[in-house]
Design brief:
Shape: elongated
Radius of gyration: 32 Å
Strand content: over 45%
Distance between the termini: 96 Å
Number of helices: 1
């Protein structure tokens, strides 16, 4: 029987010129079709090779059950009467301007072509198909009321081609098929022409119960809910996707998002609350492309990952990571977050880790966007290489934040925070700004170049609840605010600050700040502040305070290095020069180059210090509750 089929196939090919308006479709476990007048075929052994139009495909004989020469089905909403001319096995039903195309179960053709064109202001297209399909939108203008404009039911993957300008919309759609384009199958947009698609919806824009991928497509979406929703995955390879929505931009549910290239933009409204530009529970990966996100609402997130199940039987789960390998990303957070709000906006929010391997990131937040965070991970933040620029102007903002550790091994970081304090209900437990904040440790190595600028009362350049360990790179930190700290760590988790590495350079500039005194809180400005130990073993450390910026703020009780335990300077070179311009009421400005609750140990050739305006003598510029002693 199969021998007879191949004999028939060869005969059909020999007379293909009679089928110039047709396409050849191989039936069976294949997904191949070609214009009937533009191919050649070679049958040898167990394989079939078909070539034409510069392309070639090979199949095993066992995968091919037959061949059909069919005209594509054309649905013209400007002439629906002509749309009923369909091949055997395909039924077209038209009720008013609602069209339903039903394929028989035994139709057997993969990637059969359905071309939709014309215009209707109150029409819809429903396709019921159990095989793969190629859907071409050719200068289509279609709007529906109370239902999707396009609804794909019980199908496998749908290849979507765009020709010319296409407009799809829906209004008053409160049905279970809640999108202008709704599909139970994966939607694969792959356009070889310069076609485009615009979608306007009172609900979601484009929705698939499986996955969505875009290659070369030019798509613009305006939606009252989410722009794009997919249950299985979302992939952008190339082309452009512009979304303006009140809800999420792209929601891939419990699955993943991959951006390989192309241009992606998202913008929401000031009324958008707790929405995400890109959202998935699994990993969100950027390999390239240009991404621009504008968040105008409250508690908004740019990139957001969650928690997903990895083993249904054992209920094991994992947390999604945000991974940036390359590309250009900009995020603008313009929403208003009040001081009393407990939530916050984040450009990047990962329930897992944030991993930055390359690319360029530019993040900005407005002066009324309090508590905003640039990179915000429940797990680790790891930066291997990238250009990262973050500027945040609201109160108590954090450029980079982690509930665990932050690792910086390369790249160029320019981080800026400004604004005041946010009261957390206790004036002694106020939340302040930090350029880099880790609930555990901060670890810097390699050759990163880091610029930190914190213009905030009690603001901090680097702030870790545990240790700060710097083994390489260049850090240039400027703090501008009373009670501010350059590098600061706690001690509850055994914290200490360690500076090592021959090529390590750490600079801290203290401008316009000194003593912060408010209802029993007398925080002092300090270049380096540790609740535990401070150990400088190698590298160059320079700490300076001055009023050369023309500040009208009073410098009082400044600390170059301050430790709750010991300060040890055993190598490298540390230079501390502290100017002060004010005195306490008792006439004593207690500014110290180094202040330790424990001991101070140093090599004389590794330390230079001067506090010219301090109201204590130079012998007391090093102050220890324990001993001050030199090392050999």
């Amino acid at each position: 029987m199969r021998k007879l089929f191949f004999t028939t196939l060869i005969a059909a090919v020999c007379s293909a010129s009679a089928f110039a308006e047709y396409k050849m479709y191989l039936m069976g476990d294949t997904s191949f079709c070609r214009p009937a007048d533009g191919f050649s075929i070679n049958i040898g052994g167990d394989n079939i090779k078909i070539s034409g139009n510069g392309e070639e495909a090979s199949f095993t004989k066992a995968a091919v059950d037959g061949v059909k020469f069919l005209k594509p089905l054309v649905i013209d909403f400007s002439d629906l009467a002509a749309s009923k001319n369909s091949p055997d096995g395909v039924t077209v039903d038209v009720v008013n301007s609602d069209v339903t195309v039903t394929f028989a179960e035994d139709f057997g053709v993969n990637h059969y072509d359905v071309i939709v064109t014309g215009k209707s202001d109150n029409g819809s297209l429903t396709i019921k198909q159990s095989s793969k399909l190629t859907l071409t939108l050719d200068n289509l203008s279609l709007s529906a009321k109370g239902k999707p404009a396009i609804n794909i039911v019980n199908s496998k993957n749908i290849n979507v081609e765009l020709i010319g300008e296409n407009k799809i919309g829906c209004s008053e759609n409160n049905s279970e098929f809640n999108a202008a384009i709704y599909s139970e199958a994966s939607l694969i947009f792959n356009t070889e022409s310069d076609g485009n698609l615009s979608v306007k919806s009172n609900t979601h824009g484009i929705r698939s119960k499986e996955g969505i991928s875009l290659s070369n497509a030019q798509i613009a979406i305006n939606a009252d809910k989410d722009g794009v929703r997919a249950n299985d995955y979302f992939i952008l390879n190339s082309g452009s996707l512009d979304i303006e929505a009140l809800g999420d931009g792209i929601d891939a549910n419990k699955s993943y998002i991959i951006i390989n290239g192309g241009n992606l933009s998202y913008k929401n409204s000031s009324t958008s609350v707790d929405v995400k530009a890109l959202k998935c529970d699994s990993d969100l990966t950027v390999n390239g492309g240009n991404i621009s996100l504008t968040l105008n609402g409250t508690d908004n997130k740019g990139f957001s990952t969650g928690k997903y199940e990895v083993n249904e039987a054992t209920a094991d789960s994992a947390f999604g990571n945000v991974i940036v390998n390359d590309g250009f990303i900009e995020v603008f957070m313009n929403g208003i977050m009040e001081d009393s709000d407990t939530s916050s906006c984040s450009a990047f929010k990962a329930d897992g880790d944030i991993l930055i391997y390359g690319g360029e990131l530019n993040i900005e937040s407005g002066e009324k966007n309090h508590r905003a965070k640039g990179l915000n991970a429940d797990g680790d933040v790891k930066i291997y290489d990238a250009i990262i620029n973050i500027e945040q102007n609201g109160n108590a903002c954090r450029n980079i934040a982690s509930e665990n550790n932050i690792y910086i091994e390369g790249g160029k970081l320019d981080l800026y925070t400004t604004g005041g304090l946010v009261n957390e209900g206790d004036v002694l437990n106020e939340s302040s700004a930090s350029c880099i904040k880790a609930d555990n440790g901060i670890f810097v190595s390699g050759t990163p170049e880091i610029i930190l600028y914190s213009e905030s009362v009690k603001g901090k350049g680097m702030n870790a609840d545990s240790s700060i360990v710097i083994n390489g790179g260049k850090i240039d930190c400027t703090i501008f605010g009373t009670g501010a700290k350059g590098l600061s760590c706690g001690y509850e988790l055994g914290g200490e600050i360690v500076i090592d590495g021959a090529n390590t350079i750490v600079k801290v500039n203290i401008f316009g700040g000194g003593l912060y005194k408010y209802e029993g809180d007398d925080s002092k400005a300090a270049g380096i502040k540790s609740d535990g130990n401070v150990a400088i073993r190698n590298g160059s450390v320079n700490i300076k305070s001055s009023d050369e910026l023309g500040s009208d703020k009073t410098f009082k009780q400044i600390r170059g290095i301050s430790a709750g335990k010991d300060v040890t300077i055993s190598g490298g070179f540390t230079d501390i020069y502290l100017e002060s311009n004010g005195a306490e009421e008792d006439g004593v400005d207690k500014t110290y180059a180094i202040k330790a609750d424990g001991n101070i140990k140093f090599k004389p050739e590794s330390l230079k210090y001067e506090c010219p305006d301090s109201y204590i003598n130079d012998n007391a510029w090093l102050k220890a509750d324990g001993k001050v002693e030199t090392l050999d």
